[in-house]
Amino acid sequence: MNTPDLHEPGEACLSCPSRFSQLRKLGLRVAESDHVIALAGNPNTGKTTVFNALTGLRMHTGNWPGKTISRAEGGFSYEGKNFKLVDLPGTYSLLSASPDEEVARGFLLFGRPDVTVIVADATCMERNLNLTLQILQITRRAVLCLNLMDEARANGIDIDTRQLARDLGIPVVPCAARSGEGIPELIREISIMAAREDAPAPRRLPLEIPGLRLALDRIEGDLQETFPQLPQPRWVALRLLEGDREIIEAVRSGEIGALSAPVHERLHHSA
Amino acid sequence: MKSAETILKQASELRWQLPQNLHDRIAESIHGEAARIAARSLTRSAGNRRLAWQQKLDRLLTSPWTAFPIMVAVLGAILWLTIAGANVPSGMLNTLLVEKGHAMISQWFVAAGAPAWLKGLLVDGMYLATAWVIAVMLPPMAIFFPCFTLLEDFGFLPRVAFNLDRIFQKAGAHGKQALTMAMGLGCNAAGVVATRIIDSPRERIIAILTNNFSLCNGRWPTQILMATIFIGALAPEGWAGSIAALSVLVVALLGFGFAMLTSWLLARTVLRGEATSFSLELPPYRPPNFWKTLYTSLIDRTLIVLWRAVVFALPAGAVIWLVANVFIGDLTMAEWFVRAAEPLAWTMGLTGVILLAYVVAIPANEIVIPAILMLTVLVTGSAGGAGAGVMFEADEATVHAMLTAGGWTTLTAVCLMLFSLCHNPCSTTLYTIYRETRSWKWTAVSALLPLVMGFALCALVAAVWRALV
Predict the structure, then answer these.
(1) Which residue segment(s) compose the domain that B155 sits in?
(2) Distance from the A266 Cα atom to the nearest Cα atom in chain B, whole angstroms
(3) Most buried of A26, A268, B37, B257 (most Cβ within 10 A)?
(4) Tell me: the pLDDT tens digits for B212-226?
(5) DSSP letters of B328-359?
């Protein structure tokens, strides 16, 4: 719909190998952007509003879950870097196999964005942290945007964002995207996270289920041996134990092994 | 190093040693962790007036006793606002574009010495049809869409879905169909795309097939015009607007009823199955961002939809002028068609002109009214006086007089309103249906089902009417 006209990849890019094709396969035009940023979160947390606030676009928003059906794309620049922003459909979890969840999960896993901005509704934190924790198992290159802070305050909810940031291990930015509150801070955190060279290990979950830890350790070990660059072997191991078809297919085809470096490295290699 | 296959094999062996409800237990432990983290950083101050207010409003908007009257009243109020508010600007646009604009451009063509057929095709056909579409459509849409968007932003739509869920469930359809039908009130093609929020393929097909029963913006002008000049005119002075709005509301609700009935029939015959459950979050009420909403709904919806209508009106205007001016033997193409269609049209309480207009308007419902008026002028040779296939109109009274001269009665208006509700979707919607279902069969069903229903319904109403009156 309102996708801004970004240039098609140039000749040099088209000829460069696999790393770039991964994103192109997902239909993303990434040429001329230095970083790819994904916007994920529960339905109706104002992802599209945050998207609009960051890009200056005016995608239609609405107060009902499931409003964003297709993936919207836009861009912004900050301190001389171009950021490509992808607005993913809202999901409650990444565990089931409904089409919108597959779009979101597939993008986080196979698109490997440089930064994932998790948009959470500050008025119902608990439900939103559920998804946050699941995303952090795939990537820690994430920033939590605690949106709708104005409403949370009006509802008498007070959130200790520093405590939350410590617990989650990622930056937390309180926002009210509708009025633009917190957006400059969010952009700064995105930029800092995107520039980080190290790849923080995904967050581990305390899974106290009999036999699970042992099984996970074994599969994880094997995966690490076969795909030494795989950034989230434990999450992949868990998905395999749960019998996730999409992930099984990705392991079988070896596609999972290509997921070694974050996007911006892939871009720089190809440049 | 192990091969991928070995790892997969090992994983599936290990799976057997794990608890059977592994999935649920993982979800539980994630949830537990989320709750622990939330508890550590969150404090709630007690006694919250805003939350209490929201809960009260929710109780009012979702209680079985008050919810339905409120929903109907809200829809009625929007329709009334649209009808009452659009009248004056529509008249002004009409004077500007149709009366003055047409005369002026005609003069230019005459002054430039353009041949009559060229002036006819370009000015009397394409320009007039487009000018008409803008005059008829722009004002109601500029009122209807922002109103609807404000409600959407406020958080009203999920409550509507919540209220209607029980009815949809009984019909064997998905509760989220209410949301897709609400989108259909704007544009059926958009409504069909919105059915993607329904996971179950069976219920999604039902939602796609019945979306057409949501009156789209291309059909609101037809409803509003018929209600205003024929039904509102029956009411005493001062009540005309309200009665007109009420009659449009009845048609809109009838559409909802047909959607339910069709869903029920489909769910009992070709699309059998249980209604699946789903979770619907009732979002907090949020004060709509008034000016921003106004801007986005005007740009994103009104102008885009209007642009589409104009794009279709241009060639349609040419087609209308051509069928009204190209002779085969001693009659024009339009007259041949109208004569042939007249018996069928009479049975349905319509006229041959209306059926021809609906053939011309397959690309877009917006063309129906301009086509009817242009063709009526031709067939009756009445008023306007600008020659064959030129529609020319000043105000409601003139339209009324012109249509009456074309053999219209109140029955014609009523049947047209019903047929406008119950006929094939426009070609854009049909194409969208094909793209979403990838099935010619379902695309054909979605075109024929409402068409057959429309024929039957109009014939029934006409027969009963003629027996009684």
Answers:
(1) 67-272+310-468
(2) 24
(3) B37
(4) 999 987 888 889 889
(5) ETTEEHHHHHHHHHHHHHHHTT--HHHHHHHH
